[in-house]
Structures are given as C-alpha cells and as structure tokens.
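>> received
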Amino acid sequence: MPKLKTKKSAAKRFRVQGGGGVKRSRAFLRHILTKKSTKRKRHLRGTTAVHEADKRAVKLMLPYA
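>> returned
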C-alpha cells in the first residue's frame, strides 16, 4: 500500500485533537473590518470545532493526523 498524501492546504487550516475532534479557526476576520461591530469581531476570535457533517471529509484530507 503506497503512502497517502496529506492535502497541505487542509493541514494549514485544521488541527486534529486527541479525542478525535477537529479544530478550525473562524472566517470573516481578515479584511473589511470597519463595518463589522466590535461584538461580531470578538466572537470571531479563537477556534471552534468542525461540524459533524464535515468532519469525515477533513479527516480524509489529513490521513496521518
């Protein structure tokens, strides 16, 4: 069985946790920030879990994570 390649773009965006969950950062905080409220920007900070429906696809992109 040959080695599997990791999707490098996915490796930069996701981290697999010890319990099997997948961690991601939130979108919409890169530019055009003046029209977004402080509360909205504050809630976009930090990380969150990948949704259950997408977890399988992400794990396939990261075969050795």
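>> DSSP finds three helices and three strands in the chain.
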